[in-house]
Amino acid sequence: GPINNYEQVFEDVQVRHRKLRVDLKRPDGSTVATIASPLRLQGTPPVYDRAPPALGDATDAVLTDLLGMARDQVERLRKDGIV
Predict the structure, then answer these.
(1) Domain range for 83
(2) pLDDT-based confidence at 41, cuts 50/70/90?
């Protein structure tokens, strides 16, 4: 089948009819469109209370906490345009 980008997905007649678009606010005040769960469970509706992180939001945590890099190494990577 066809592969749609986000714009095409949100323009789809079925997506609009089923109200599968959910706009969520990020901490910086920006809004991001996300896709709602297609499941409709009686009595247990999904809660959409947190927007996904913006691209790069977790870079420092991944490099330092998960990969064990020192902060000066991360700053060097940033200065060199790598991250």
Answers:
(1) 53-83
(2) confident
Mean pLDDT of 52-80: 94
Q: What is this structure's pTM?
A: 0.66
Specify if 43 maps to a domain. no
Residues 68 and 56 sit within 8 Å (Cβ to Cβ): no
| Distances 70 to 7, 27, 64, 79, 83 between C-alpha atoms, Å | 39, 27, 6, 14, 14
Q: What pLDDT, on a 0 to 100 scale, did the predictor assign at position 42?
A: 87
The verdict on 64 and 33 lying in the same domain is no
What is the spatial distance between Cα 17 and Cα 55, in angstroms, rounded to a whole number?
A: 29
* Position 46 in a domain: no
